[in-house]
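User: Just a sanity check before I run the rest of the batch. Below are the structure tokens for the first item. I only need the designed sequence back.
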């Protein structure tokens, strides 16, 4: 099997012959899919590990580089890079093949880690994170495309559950590594550690993936929608790091029409769009699915960005201890995803609804307990967030991929990452703006910690409610497209 599959290949193969009898994980790895599965999981690990590394080191970075006001940019800058690069996955793959694109992603990740490790000031650190985000966008986008093209629909929940498990492992290991380096006063060494992993990844890509000679015509890059989307995210991000409250609100207000303009221009493109053509149609279930991804991810981002710093201040936890409280989110995500991965249509419908409701409950609980505690209640709030995503995200992804036409399989699959990353970037920026408007730019203190914790999650709650409405509407349309239980 070629490592670079043209859009529609898997769909065409599935329609040419009846699907094999489902037999769970053994059938998933059969038919030559084992190698593809392993490689996808390796790519997910590299993306997840680097995305999570800042969770426990940012308080040390902020103190060392005098950059508390730029806290949100460590996440939003990373995600901006993911958004831009992720939207270019289809043309990059068509032009350079899977091997070439993955090698480029690994090289960019190593470079970005080196820039952050050498950073003499916070802007240099953020620049390194943007490059790392671009690398993660390429690697992660290719993984989503490969999942949609290689695996039959009946296997998608299990593949996404396995990918979630990789994130769960990374969430346990990431805080451990970052916390150990941070507690030792050597946060820069964290990035050298991950630069080494990126180089090792490139060696594995070179040895495992054959050179591809069957290149598809490169689809056009959606330049205008991509520029508008990037400008929107940048407007939100700048609003999150400036001290002038009025200017921050103006920038946030500018970001909304820029985002709307990106969606309108994208819908008007005849080819090469960021999102499938039916996404913005009135009552479109595809639109509801992408909206849920965007709003739920945006709502949850503030927890990952600000919970470690708040816990270290209010409960005197070490960087490592705070990281593991936050890691409950990913562990719950992994456990719930594996629990429901073999479910059929009825399980999927109510898992999506229950998952979206759990995200709302988690945000509401964190709004109340983040600053005053107790720590176990904060962990429960994080667990509700992660459990909600674990119950819902795999089934929503399955719905999306089985709803796409043959000509939109690659772009629609890659758009999952683009939409989630856009939501994460906007969510990080909104949380940063809420925190800085309440004094976080000067560091946490007894006088501002309650307000910072409250408003970070008060800003997120409406987004979570919108996600619940979208998920509830989507669940009613899922049944006809889902396969029977495995």
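Assistant: Here's the designed sequence for the first item:
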């Amino acid at each position: 099997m070629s490592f670079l599959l043209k859009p529609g290949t898997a769909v065409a193969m599935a329609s040419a012959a009846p699907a094999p009898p489902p037999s769970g994980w053994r059938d998933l790895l059969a038919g030559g899919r084992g190698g593809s599965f392993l490689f996808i999981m390796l790519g997910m690990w590299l993306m997840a590990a680097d995305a999570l590394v800042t969770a426990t080191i940012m308080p040390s970075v902020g103190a060392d580089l005098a950059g508390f006001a730029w806290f949100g940019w460590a996440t939003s800058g990373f995600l901006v890079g993911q958004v831009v690069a992720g939207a270019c996955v289809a043309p990059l793959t068509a032009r350079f093949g899977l091997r070439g694109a993955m090698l480029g992603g690994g090289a960019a990740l190593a470079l970005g880690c080196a820039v952050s490790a050498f950073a003499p000031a916070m802007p240099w650190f953020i620049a390194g994170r943007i490059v790392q985000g671009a690398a993660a966008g390429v690697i992660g986008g290719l993984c989503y495309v490969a999942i949609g093209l290689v695996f039959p629909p009946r296997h998608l929940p299990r593949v996404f559950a396995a990918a979630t498990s990789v994130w769960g492992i990374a969430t346990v290991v990431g805080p451990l590594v970052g916390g150990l380096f941070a507690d030792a006063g050597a946060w820069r060494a964290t990035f050298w550690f991950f630069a080494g992993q990126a180089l090792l990844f490139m060696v594995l890509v070179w040895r495992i993936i054959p050179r591809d000679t069957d290149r598809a015509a490169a689809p056009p890059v959606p330049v205008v929608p991509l520029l508008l989307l990037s400008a929107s995210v940048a407007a939100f991000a700048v609003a999150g790091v400036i001290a002038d409250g009025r200017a921050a609100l103006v920038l946030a207000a500018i970001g909304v029409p820029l985002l709307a303009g990106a969606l309108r221009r994208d819908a008007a493109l005849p080819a090469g769009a960021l999102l499938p053509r039916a996404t913005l149609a009135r009552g479109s279930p595809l639109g509801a699915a992408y909206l849920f991804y965007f709003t739920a991810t945006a709502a949850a981002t503030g927890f990952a960005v600000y919970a470690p710093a708040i816990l270290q201040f209010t409960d005197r936890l070490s960087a490592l201890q705070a990281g593991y409280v936050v890691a409950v989110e990913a562990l719950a995500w992994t456990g719930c995803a594996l629990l429901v991965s073999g479910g059929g249509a009825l399980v999927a419908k109510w898992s999506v609804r229950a998952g979206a409701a759990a995200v709302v409950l988690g945000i509401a609980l964190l709004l109340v307990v983040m600053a005053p505690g107790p720590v176990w209640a904060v962990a429960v709030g994080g667990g509700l967030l992660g459990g909600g995503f674990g119950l819902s995200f795999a089934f929503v992804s399955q719905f999306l991929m089985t709803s796409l036409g043959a000509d939109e399989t690659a772009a629609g699959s890659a758009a999952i990452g683009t939409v989630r990353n856009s939501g994460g970037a906007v969510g990080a920026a909104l949380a940063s703006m809420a925190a800085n408007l309440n004094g976080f730019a000067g560091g946490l203190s007894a006088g501002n910690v309650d307000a910072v914790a409250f408003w970070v999650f008060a800003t997120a709650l409406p987004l979570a409610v919108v996600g619940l409405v979208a998920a509830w509407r989507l669940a009613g349309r899922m049944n006809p497209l889902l396969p029977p239980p495995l």
